[in-house]
Amino acid sequence: MITQDLKFPAAASADNKLGGNNTAFENKPTMDTGEEQVSGNYSKATFTKRHVSILVGTFMLLIGAAYAFYLLQPQYQEMNLNRMDTIGGMILLITGIFLLLFRLGFLAFIARQFFRYKPVSSVTDEELPTCTVIVPAYNEGKLVYSTLKSLVNSSYPAEKLELIAINDGSKDDTWAWMEKAKEELGDRVSIFQQPKNMGKRHALYRGFKLGKGEVFVTVDSDSIVEVDTLRNLVSPFITNENCGAVAGNVRVLNNQKAIIPRMLNVSFVFSFEFIRSAQSVMGSVLCTPGALAAYRRNAVMNCLEEWMNQTFMGQPTDIGEDRAMTNMILKQGFHVLFQRNAYVLTNIPEKYSSLHKMFTRWERSNVRENLMMTKFAFKPFRNGSRAGTRLLLVNQWMGMITAYPLILMMIILLIAHPVLFICSTLLSILIFSSLPAFFYAKKYNITEAFWIYSYSIFYTFGLFWITPYAMATASRRGWLTRG
């Protein structure tokens, strides 16, 4: 799970995913998955006529909206004056100003933390702890083979690395590809079958029980790691005795294919490299992503049974295992950090139907885990400063509390003032999306950065309903994207 922690009025969320220092991703080595080369090159942009037409259409729409906003100033002023003549209008205006100031203040706070962030450099081979990597797999086919090959090709000392892959009752040829990996890699990898499809949490639980390492690393079976990813990921456990978990830096593997992954890649970069970097400075990364995360063994064992038997509204929990584990480790008083130099490339949905299901699953987990976090975050759950952790949680709650009022206000304005509403919304997208666009352009590629504007329009008008829907259906079970 990759949470979307910061939602601009029109732009999509942001977290954070860039490279170790300020070097560009194109300087990172190409990853050999055995069967094919998966390039980590994000400096080059290839555009088809369809791509160009989408980007041109996006900016024509945004610039046209900005011009219309200028021309329609008398109507905006009249609407605001009429609003100020009523108590409801005044409340709405004051509330809007407060929310805007809160968002801007929170963003300024996050930016300040971001500039303080530095990833931990890899420690020596002798200092590296023994490590168990757990790869749960369900209907991944050949991708699981590529994942296992990339892990074995890591620069982590072989004698300190234990690799466990667990087939969670797949209905396709996933097991055959795991057997192929076992045949080629021998004792470097151990493969196991679940008796039936039991869910990702059960597969991870079995891996935690089997693993012997001082550190557990979880990797999704559709993800490819770089050569130095594992050693960079676990190094904070050696340099910081308070570190209980580490989040990896997730990037989009299939970003050169469909439009949705291409748009989401820019959002992912901002989400991980900006937001999670800032959270890491506070020792409070809110979610260690399923695609790549590391956990101190004793921190996992302290909460393993509680995590495995977690319930919500009386029902067993079968989603949000990553956010739940992060919460339980934070609750123990450990710090949760982010390693910008620990890259993983992962597949994301290419179709709207799969994307909204994935986002719904994430949001339901956020609702549940925000409730759980609230139970301990305002208590002395750890030594040292806890203000940053609490502010991060308050920001999460602000997004939830305002979800229904904003939807209601959007509907009212869309009915009463459709042109004014659409123009102001598109202008907001143009303004607020420029921060992640600038961030991506500075780190990687200017032309690819423009996709954030298209994504913000897509999110604002196509995915706005997910948070309120997830809140209303938070008790529902199911992975949704597993057909």
Automatic annotation (TrEMBL):
Give compartment(s): Cell membrane
Q: Which GO terms describe its biological process?
A: extracellular matrix assembly; hyaluronan biosynthetic process
GO MF annotation list: hyaluronan synthase activity
Q: Lineage of the source organism?
A: Bacteria, Pseudomonadati, Bacteroidota, Flavobacteriia, Flavobacteriales
Tell me the protein's name: Glycosyltransferase family 2 protein
Q: Which species is this UniProt entry from?
A: Antarcticibacterium flavum
Looking at the keywords, is Phosphoprotein present?
A: no
Keywords, A to Z?
A: Cell membrane, Glycosyltransferase, Membrane, Transferase, Transmembrane, Transmembrane helix
Q: Which domain of life is it from?
A: Bacteria
Main localisation? membrane
Q: Name one GO cellular component term.
A: plasma membrane
Ranges annotated as spanning the membrane: 52-70, 90-111, 391-413, 419-440, 452-472
Query: Which one Pfam family would you cite for this protein?
Result: Glyco_tranf_2_3
The family database entries (CDD domains) matched by this protein are listed as: CESA_like (cd06423)
